[in-house]
């Protein structure tokens, strides 16, 4: 696991050269066909030599979710393990890792009528008042939300009204979809500036490699709009504005750079609180040997 541009693929390939592993991608954008440059998707040549499960499995007009990922990943893990090999999960979509290892709560679907009612209450009384209501119904959830966090307050109250019980209680009963032992290795750069340099360099290379034409081609596909989930991926969302004449290339590229840095920050925040994480400095000279040592020790202990 690691933030964007931390070198996850390179380390995965190194492990594949040493151990009987098969790679499963944990990336919400790599699932889409035709989204190659902007996702930094491994080249066709590399994918031929080192096949990645869950890459190029959907068209960009389709949606994907943490639940769908869990279903696909569990099937891949079981098939790989049945052949006596080791599933190697590689990526940066932390929500997918969390869903796989900790499970997904069985929460009710959104109800537009309930949401409209909550919106009307908020318009009249303000979201802090609804936060106070949530504090009485679900104090655990309310404690981690700001009184102005409209989207999350609305969802928590919606769950309370539909399910008749607090969202925190439903989350507490969540179970992982697969009983498995995980060795969690996180690439956490000690020097954030090095990561920012790599992110900037990668963006420059994407533009030179034709990501603008890729976004232009995707935007012409019937059914794809700026709100299509695939097009809301970091980078695509910002460059879309240039392709459609809403922004200059320089401004769109700067927006993409800022958004990618923010994504990396969110990914690192997830990782720093990850249970049982084996942290490795992504850019340490001996990072590869540290990872190799962790895997050898894990295997020696009978994993």
Secondary structure elements and pairings:
Elements: H1 8-18, E1 21-26, H2 44-49, E2 52-53, H3 66-82, E3 86-91, H4 94-102, H5 112-125, H6 127-137, H7 139-143, H8 150-163, H9 167-172, E4 184-187, H10 192-209, H11 211-219, H12 236-243, H13 249-272, E5 277-280, H14 287-300
Helix pairs in contact: 3-4, 5-6, 5-8, 6-8, 10-13, 11-12, 12-13
Folded structure, characterized:
- With 303 residues, the protein is mostly helical.
- The chain folds into 2 domains: 222 residues, P-loop containing nucleotide triphosphate hydrolases (Rossmann fold, 3-Layer(aba) Sandwich), CATH 3.40.50; 61 residues, Histone, subunit A (Orthogonal Bundle).
- It is built from 14 helices and 5 strands.
- Helix 6 crosses helix 8.
- The longest helix is centred in the last third of the chain and has 24 residues.
Give a short summary of the structure.
This protein is mainly alpha-helical. The protein is 55% helix and 7% strand.
Supply the helix-strand structural class.
mainly alpha
* CATH homology-level superfamily of the largest domain: P-loop containing nucleotide triphosphate hydrolases
What is the CATH topology classification name of the largest domain?
Answer: Rossmann fold
Average predicted confidence as pLDDT: 95
What share of residues are in beta strands?
5-15%
Low-confidence stretches: none
Rg on CA atoms, Å: 21 Å
Name the CATH architecture of the largest domain.
3-Layer(aba) Sandwich
Terminal residue distance? 19 Å
The largest pleated sheet is described as:
3 strands, parallel
Amount of helix: 40-55%
DSSP, total strands: 5
User: What overall form do the CA principal axes indicate?
Assistant: globular
Name of the level-1 CATH class of the largest domain: Alpha Beta
Element-by-element helix/strand order: HEHEHEHHHHHHEHHHHEH
Q: Please give the order of strands in the largest beta sheet.
A: 2-1-3
Number of domains: 2
- The number of helical elements comes to 14
Oligomer: single chain
């Amino acid at each position: 696991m690691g933030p964007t541009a931390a070198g996850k693929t390179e380390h995965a390939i190194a492990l594949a050269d040493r151990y009987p592993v098969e790679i499963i991608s944990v990336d919400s954008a790599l699932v889409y066909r035709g989204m190659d440059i902007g996702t930094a998707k491994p080249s066709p040549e590399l994918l031929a030599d080192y096949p990645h499960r869950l890459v190029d499995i959907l068209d960009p007009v389709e949606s994907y979710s943490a639940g769908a990922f869990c279903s696909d990943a569990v099937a891949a893990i079981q098939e790989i393990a049945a052949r006596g090999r080791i599933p190697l999960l590689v990526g940066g979509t932390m929500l997918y890792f969390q869903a796989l290892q900790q499970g997904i709560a069985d929460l009710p679907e959104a109800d537009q009528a309930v949401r409209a009612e909550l919106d009307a209450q908020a318009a009249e009384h303000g979201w802090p008042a609804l936060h106070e209501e949530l504090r009485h119904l679900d104090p655990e959830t309310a404690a981690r939300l700001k009184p102005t966090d409209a989207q999350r307050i609305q969802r928590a109250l919606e769950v309370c009204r539909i399910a008749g019980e607090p969202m925190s209680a439903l989350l507490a009963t969540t179970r992982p979809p697969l009983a498995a032992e995980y060795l969690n290795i996180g690439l956490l750069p000690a020097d954030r500036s090095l990561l920012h340099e790599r992110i900037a360099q990668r963006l420059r290379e994407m533009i030179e490699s034709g990501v603008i034409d890729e976004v232009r081609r995707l935007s012409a596909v019937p059914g794809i709009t700026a709100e299509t989930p695939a097009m809301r991926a970091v980078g695509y969302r910002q460059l879309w504005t240039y392709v459609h004449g809403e922004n200059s290339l320089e401004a769109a590229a700067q927006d993409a750079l800022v958004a990618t840095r923010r994504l990396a920050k969110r990914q690192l925040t997830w990782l720093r609180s990850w249970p049982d994480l084996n942290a490795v400095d992504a850019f340490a000279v001996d990072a590869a040997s540290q990872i190799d040592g962790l895997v050898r020790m894990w295997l020696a202990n009978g994993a």
